[in-house]
Design a protein that fits this description.
The protein has 457 residues and is of the alpha/beta class. The protein has helices spanning 96-114, 172-187, 229-235, 238-244, 296-310, 326-333, 345-357, 370-373, 397-406, 418-427; strands at 15-19, 22-23, 29-33, 36-40, 48-56, 60-70, 123-126, 137-145, 148-154, 161-163, 202-209, 216-222, 246-253, 265-271, 274-279, 282-287, 316-320, 338-342, 363-367, 383-388, 410-415, 431-439, 449-456. It has 10 helices and 23 strands. The strands form 4 sheets. The chain has an 8-stranded mixed sheet with strand order 7-22-23-21-20-17-18-19, sandwiched between helices. Strands 10-9-8-11-12-13-14 form a 7-stranded mixed sheet. The protein has a 6-stranded mixed sheet with strand order 1-5-6-4-3-2, with no helix packed on it. The two termini are 48 Å apart. The mean pLDDT is 95.
Length: 457
């Protein structure tokens, strides 16, 4: 019998009245019209809107809100002046308790629908405190618009920079430093990079700041070239640098036709090429490109959770995808013997510097791909615990196979992507999920951080 052709009940350009049922993992509203799934950006559950269909596919359609007919009682006033135009914080107009519940459900749904897992343990939320002004790093894009530069973040799905003065997720000194740099860029008429034509000089700004130490590090990202002497004189005004706690200014050169912010060449224009961050009793040596959790307040909670699952269990700990060694050093401070592995040389250099800074000899760091590390069976024979904190794409099949062959007593999986977390947990056969916590590292956004403890059956 011939397969029945699916009838899509709407066409591009149609106006429809919709009631939003839930949020997708993207942070966009989801509803159904005659059984057909429609995404409704910039809405919240219980909103009723008049929307125009902008795209249809066999599986779903996309709409644009024309008018909000009824607003959910869970909506709050968004503090940001460019919300929702800026694509950074898609749910900052939603009551924070609802945000937290949404993130827990994202993990529940992914484990069940993607992983096919029947998890019986309760998923415990770990809310953020504070929920605003928590980010310790900003990667600003710069775009020429008219006579003045626009400095900010991209509008969702575009490379159009949404200019703003203040971002309410960033620590306030970062905004002050950015606005000081804006003044210098304007007064010296710096040439601004044009992404389409691959012309111009200044591509972006990076500002890193530590609330614990008061230190900051500034990066100016350009194509090939040099800054003028007059610009350098103003940029290195000692009184201003002291005021902002700036320890170094780094010139990062990115010659490539790419939307990746940082290039591979770094030159120190002034001061040093690193600054110091502090979490608990630990100090960290951080360079411009090194990875570090953007929310130090929640990082302390996350590291404490990992410590509570690992401390006193015996054997070595393998910290896979260790980044700049945050978890490794935290566990080393607690008395664990740790091997941290990362493929980025700059991360390992920072981790080793931080280990020396804290006088920790219980942490060793290897700069090599994790897939190769699993071949060093003799060196890893004492490992009883594996800590995984992979990028959003999760673990490669080779890494999963390497862990299963190693047969550690426990695995601690820290994930920023519920979908790949669920996929990988389903592959880790022979292990039982003992605890799950959703740590809100990114309040006001749809992004989810999860920590899972698995124990060998």
């Amino acid at each position: 019998m011939a397969k029945q052709k699916l009838e899509i009940p709407v066409h591009v350009g149609d106006d429809v009245e919709l009631e939003v049922e839930s949020l997708a993992s993207s942070g966009d509203g989801v509803t159904h019209h005659h059984g057909y799934t429609l995404f409704v950006p910039h809405t919240l559950p219980q909103d009723r809107v008049k929307a125009r269909v902008t795209k249809t596919t066999k599986r779903f359609g996309v709409t644009r809100v024309i008018k909000r007919l009824h607003s959910t009682p869970d909506r709050v006033d968004a503090p940001c002046a460019v919300f929702p135009e800026c694509g950074g914080c898609k749910i900052q107009d939603w009551d924070y308790a609802k945000q937290m519940g949404f993130k827990v459900r994202q993990v529940q749904d992914a484990l069940g629908h993607i992983g096919g897992l029947n998890i019986t343990v309760e998923i415990e939320p770990v809310p953020a405190d504070p929920p605003l002004h928590y980010r310790n790093k900003a990667n600003y894009a710069v775009e020429k618009r008219g006579k003045k530069p626009s400095i900010g973040f991209y509008r969702q799905g575009t490379h159009h920079v949404v200019d703003h003065v203040e971002c309410h997720t960033l620590m306030e000194p970062i905004t002050a430093i950015k606005e000081w740099l804006r003044g210098l860029i304007e007064s010296h008429s710096l040439s601004i990079y044009n992404e389409r034509r691959h012309t111009g000089f200044l591509r972006g700004l990076v500002v890193r700041y530590s609330a614990a130490t008061g230190e900051s590090l500034v990066g100016l990202v350009t194509t090939h070239g040099e800054f003028s002497r007059k610009f350098m004189d103003d940029l290195t005004d000692e009184a201003v640098l002291i005021k902002f706690g700036i320890r170094g200014i780094v010139h990062n050169i990115n010659r490539a036709r790419t939307n990746v912010i940082l290039g591979h060449e770094n030159t120190t224009l002034w001061g040093q090429d690193f600054f110091r961050e502090k979490l608990g009793e630990l100090e960290f040596h951080l360079s411009l490109p090194s990875f570090f959790q953007v929310n130090p307040y929640q990082s302390v909670k996350l590291y404490g959770i990992v410590q509570s699952w690992v401390e006193g269990t015996g054997g070595q700990v393998l910290d896979a995808y260790c980044g700049n060694g945050g978890i490794s050093l935290w566990l080393g401070k607690a008395g664990c013997e740790v091997v941290g592995i990362d493929s980025a040389a700059s991360n390992i250099e920072d981790a080793e510097q931080s280990a020396r800074l804290n006088g920790l000899t219980s942490c060793r760091f290897w700069n090599l791909p994790l897939e190769r590390a699993f071949q060093l069976k003799e060196e890893l024979a004492s490992v009883k615990t594996v800590v995984l904190d992979p990028p959003r794409k999760g673990c490669s099949p080779e890494v999963v196979a390497g862990i299963l062959e190693m047969k550690p007593d426990r695995i601690v999986y820290v994930s920023c992507n519920p979908a790949t977390l669920a996929r990988d947990l389903a592959l880790l056969q022979g292990y039982t999920v003992s605890a799950i916590k959703v740590i809100d590292m990114f309040p006001q956004t749809q992004h989810v951080e999860t920590a899972v403890l698995l124990e060998r059956e």
